[in-house]
Amino acid sequence: MRTPVSRAELLAIERAAVTAWPALETADIDGWLWRYSGGGSQRANSVSPLVFRGTDVDGAIATAEARYRTRDTAPMFQICTVNVPADLDQRLQQRGYRLQELCTCLAKRIDPAGAGLDAHVEFAEAPSEAWLSVYLAGITHSRRGLAPRILAGVPAPRAFLLLRDKGEPVATALCVVAEGVAIAECVSTRADRRRIGAASRVMRALEAWGARHGACIAALQAVAANAPARALYAKLAYACVGGYHYRVLDT
After folding, report:
1. What DSSP string runs through 216-240?
2. DSSP result, 50-103
3. Which homologous superfamily does the CATH classification assign to the domain defined by 108-242?
4. Is-contact 182 206, C-beta < 8 A?
5. What is the pTM of this model?
6. Per DSSP, what are the bridge partners of residue 222?
7. Distance separating alpha carbons of residues 227 and 144, to the nearest angstrom
8. At what angle do helices 227-235 and 198-212 cross, to 10 degrees?
9. How many Cβ atoms are within 10 Å of 171's Cβ, its own excluded?
């Protein structure tokens, strides 16, 4: 079931998600945001086509492709519900781009007068070694080398959340507030401490922190095939408000 958000709110969520995970190198292509970082992050190495101010769509695609080829990497676009133009996905398919990794955009409204902060969750403006030890262990090897560089560029207001249990780091999250949206990133639980409610506690703390910093919506993006994550967020009252996938041109 979709939670009621307007197209303008969905666009704000998508823009906030782009802000929350900044690429190391960007370029403007008629309003599209071309992103490159190397490493294994798809978002940080794909075009975000939320705005288009040009008149030649195929020319803009070719410009993006040329830029990626100078980096010796496959051209990639992130296609979402509100990309511009609306037929971009079909255009890319016709050019030979293959579909890669279906994802969902999940969101809920949060109340500034809602729950308080969890006393066992630490908040910091930079990732500590303990925070990194949990988060990096939960991502692929190809992303581990790049992640600290991206995290260093995350804009404020931001908070790196770390839940400890008996002094031991257990779960992490990153909250970035932009355009009235609290974007949840880097939600991870230590492999030997799962199924004890740690991720739920971190997410509730994230929502409370986001609300205190002006957010009225909390949102995140999850891989559609990740059933445990989808179940967790459903229990926390997150609902699907949109979706996205990647289009990749193999070379």
Report:
1. SEEEEEEETT-HHHHHHHHHTT-EE
2. S----S-HHHHHHHHHHHHHHTT---EEEEETT-SSTTHHHHHHHTTPEEEEEE
3. Gcn5-related N-acetyltransferase (GNAT) (3.40.630.30)
4. yes
5. 0.94
6. 104
7. 23
8. 60
9. 29
Q: Using CA atoms, how far apart are residues 111 and 208, in angstroms rounded to an integer?
A: 8
In order of 171, 179, 246, the CA distances from 93 in angstroms are 39, 32, 11
DSSP SS3 for 112: coil
Measured between alpha carbons, how far is 69 from 211 in angstroms, rounded to an integer? 42
Calpha distance 126→129 (Å, rounded): 10
Kindly list the domain boundaries of the chain, sorted by start residue: 7-106, 108-242
Q: What is the pLDDT along the chain (251 residues), one digit of tens a residue?
A: 445 799 999 999 999 999 999 999 999 999 999 999 998 899 999 999 999 999 999 999 999 999 999 999 999 999 999 999 999 999 999 999 999 999 999 999 998 776 677 888 999 999 999 999 999 999 999 899 999 999 999 999 999 999 999 899 999 999 999 999 999 999 999 988 788 889 999 999 999 999 999 999 999 999 999 998 899 999 999 999 999 999 999 97
Q: Is 164 exposed, middle or buried (0-12, 13-18, 19+ CB in 10 A)?
A: middle
Angle at 98 between CA 19 and CA 25, to 5 degrees: 30
| Short-list 245, 229, 238, CA closest to 43 | 245
Q: Determine the Cα–Cα distance for residues 123 and 52; give it in Å rounded to an integer.
A: 37
Helix (H) or strand (E) holding 241: strand 239-248
